Amino acid sequence: MAAALVGGAALGAAFGELLKAVVKARNRALMFNTILKRMESTLKSIIPVIKEIEELNKVLDRPKQEMGQIMEQIKKGEELVLECSGIHWLACWKRPKYAGKLIKLEKSLKSFFEIVMQAQQARDGKETLLEVKDLRMDLKRLDLNVKTSRAHNVNGYIAPLVLPEPLINPIGLEVPLRELKMELFNDKVSMVVLSAPPGCGKTTLAKLLCHDKEVKEHLQRLFQHKGYEVPQSQTDEHLVYHLEQFLKSLAPSAILLILDDIWPESDSLLDKFNFQIPNYKILVTSRSSLRRFGSSYKLKPLNDKDAMTVFCNSAFLQDKSSNIDEDVVKKIVKGCKGFPLALKVVGRSLCGEPEEIWKRKEMELSKHGTIFEDDELINCLQSSLDALDNKIIVKECFMDLCSFPEDQRIPATALIDMWAELYELDEDGVHAIANLHELSNRNLIDLCVARKDASGYYNKHLVMQHDLLRELAIRQSSLESFEKTKRLIIEIRANNVPDWCMEQKQPSVGGRLLSISTDEKFSSNWCNIQAPEVEVLVLNCRTKTYSLPDFLGKMKKLKVLIVTKYGFFPTEIRNFPFLGTISNLKRIRLEKVSIPSFGFTSVQFKNLHKITLVLCNIGQAFSSTSTIQVSDALPNLVEINIDYSNDLVELPVGLCQLVQLGKLSITNCHKLVALPKEIGNLINLEIVRFSGCIELAELPSTIGSLHKLKILDISECSEIRKLPEQIRDLQNLRKLHMIGCSNKIELPPSILELEHLKEVICDEEIANLWEPFVDQLENLEIKVDKEDINLNWLYNVGF
């Protein structure tokens, strides 16, 4: 085996087999998808270079024994990956053990990748690095970064060339630097966008790249062309032309052009700088991900250890010992949320101050949770928010995210409900999701998609807002007067309500959005809040029992109610029927709530249009009472969504009275085994989803009565072994989702009567079953799903 390594064939084949195992495992072992995806990317970068193994061996100079050890590790890695692919996704207790092993394997591959890249770069020759700064000022000033002490002549213009100052103690950037180099060294990548919120260290990382030892070893010249004043008569096109000529003059050396701090409004500059020059690459730093320009690398905040180091470097004099209590320091560092700028600003403000000043800062952070006292920090973050001034709705959507607790993932479906009423966005959520994508592109949020749903259902879209950006939104809202604020955020610890709630002449809340968060010690002892204009109420609770506030009855304009229980066990709402007193309520979303028997039938919900229940105990909530039928209690309900119900075994027959229903989604209810035949009474249904109901055994024949049905989703209903003959009666059916269905499912011949069926979305095995029908259904297209799947959804089920 060692002898074969000299030619590289065996080594390349071994990596090829490992890649095949990783790709296979990604399609099966969903719980390890994120790790395997990164590993797949690394392997795809390594293998092309392995083909040039002779060059590699010249640089590595590996003895045969060591190369044999590499082969052995690759083989063990392949066995580990294949073993992981056989683990069922429900066996989640095995994840930590195998995830740790996979991460070790991934680190080994990345280490080997660096060695491979050294070999490749030694062959490719030297690179030239250019950095261009502050290009968002429409090229009135051109800053190009260059290394040498001489002057450079570009078409008659003489400019001094200087070296950027070396960086000191770039804490916490070692891993990002290594990963960024991997992106840049990829032959298939011509442009990399390094993105992060303001104050995270994007420019610092770019400068660190300039002084990296490995980079320098492969550079012929590292230089900075800075502060070059261009005559005002020059047009943008003229400047771009001269820059292109300058870069071409550097050939045949490879060129890396760094464009620092590019804003979305100026992204057209990237098109202008995308010159057709061999061995030419661009690194862009931006607060936005600028997705249309290819590869993107997101820089994350610092971990706790590195955050502490950065803070201490700014807060303590090197030649003096500190008598500041360690716990005080830890709490202050935690309050800076891992942002390097915040850590440095707060550290500098406390440097040399007496212990009492430190303790005051710690108490302020503990009480108010904010560090927004320094102008440098405020201006840095505020500029990202100000950039949304011309997109008012997107900005308001960003501000609304602070309605949910810190460090919690926000379901996109909750935001869709809020924004449909607050800003009159579409009911299906298209505009809401588009706004979230824009905020994500600007690094103002993280948008996690566990799985894209082509049917337009967004229950797998989750939003995370960084703590510091959440504080920015809260601070911005607090600058508005109480009566004129658009949103009011209240956090109650134990039973300590805000002072203004206890005033005799209590001010009236003028905003349309009210959010109230309570903790584990809250006893539901509500104060009276005057909120006549509120249209959306968000209640975040943590107690096992909970009472709705009495002032709900006075909120005549309330249209959306969102109640979320945080923690493992669901909460019981003691006064649930009180919801029936809210006359204009249109949407109810409950998460981790035990709904009492007859909860939705003991009173009338006259204007309720939509119910969403996530991780709720349903019980007899939809059973008719002796005096009120389900159809009378919910006369205008047009949409119901039940996701991850803990106790739903059979769809309540009472729901089949709601003939006005247009959308019915019963998803991820793992105990659901049967649907009542009365489901055929729901003749106005246009969308039906049963995805993820893994025990559902069959679709009743009466489903053929749903003549208006356009979308049917039975993805991952693996126990359904036959579609009913009556499916032929669904003449308006346009989309059928069958991802993850049993490959033994029987498709009846009556399917040929579905003349208007346009799409079947499924995996490869199901696609093969449809092949005999494709030629006879001329409008039909089989779409094989290859979307990425990950475990972002597991936050819902307590993992």
From TrEMBL:
<feature type="domain" description="RPW8">
    <location>
        <begin position="1"/>
        <end position="151"/>
    </location>
</feature>
<protein>
    <recommendedName>
        <fullName>RPW8 domain-containing protein</fullName>
    </recommendedName>
</protein>
<dbReference type="InterPro" id="IPR008808">
    <property type="entry name" value="Powdery_mildew-R_dom"/>
</dbReference>
<dbReference type="Pfam" id="PF23598">
    <property type="entry name" value="LRR_14"/>
</dbReference>
<dbReference type="Pfam" id="PF05659">
    <property type="entry name" value="RPW8"/>
</dbReference>
<dbReference type="GO" id="GO:0043531">
    <property type="term" value="F:ADP binding"/>
</dbReference>
<comment type="similarity">
    <text>Belongs to the disease resistance NB-LRR family.</text>
</comment>
<keyword id="KW-0677">Repeat</keyword>
<dbReference type="InterPro" id="IPR032675">
    <property type="entry name" value="LRR_dom_sf"/>
</dbReference>
<dbReference type="InterPro" id="IPR042197">
    <property type="entry name" value="Apaf_helical"/>
</dbReference>
<dbReference type="InterPro" id="IPR027417">
    <property type="entry name" value="P-loop_NTPase"/>
</dbReference>
<keyword id="KW-0611">Plant defense</keyword>
<dbReference type="InterPro" id="IPR055414">
    <property type="entry name" value="LRR_R13L4/SHOC2-like"/>
</dbReference>
<dbReference type="InterPro" id="IPR036388">
    <property type="entry name" value="WH-like_DNA-bd_sf"/>
</dbReference>
<dbReference type="GO" id="GO:0006952">
    <property type="term" value="P:defense response"/>
</dbReference>
